[in-house]
Amino acid sequence: EPEVTQTPSHQVTQMGQEVILRCVPISNHLYFYWYRQILGQKVEFLVSFYNNEISEKSEIFDDQFSVERPDGSNFTLKIRSTKLEDSAMYFCASSSDRAPEAFFGQGTRLTVV
Amino acid sequence: RKEVEQDPGPFNVPEGATVAFNCTYSNSASQSFFWYRQDCRKEPKLLMSVYSSGNEDGRFTAQLNRASQYISLLIRDSKLSDSATYLCVVPYSSASKIIFGSGTRLSIRP
To answer: How many percent of chain A have pLDDT more than 70?
Structure first.
């Protein structure tokens, strides 16, 4: 069964450093998403990406964040100058253009120290 | 009204009970709706899709009331393995922005 894969599963970084979270969406999917879930809180929409550009972004997705699809398979989230409050689980998801159900990767737990 | 709002729970029910969760949404233009389940520290997993008035899959029934902008999930004959957080999910702006409710936590006791 096709699945979304994310690497790394856990990333520890020092405050102020840049991190890149990586995702390989399901191969025939066209919509890609990043979500964030702070421990004990809700799943929050960050950004969606379609046709090589951002479709929608939330107010959380400020200049600190960027997304990229550097090749035909990877989808990355870059967080610049990380802050303690960026510590969270980051989920990547993808969906096809025929059905909006989104399928999620297992997440990357980011810990900023 | 919030984009997606759910009963916060937690619901604590005995095995075999029937339990129902509610969800309201603000965007009257939304055409499809989803229920996901999320186990502790895991990713959300799709449970059911709702495109018309409702959907049934075994012990699970989802119903949609477009006039009231309300979705429900009914779980019959609950099992210990049903213990999880149930997330109501509504796409906005077509598929560009998929919004999650805050989730309803369900705990099934033996």
So the answer is: 99
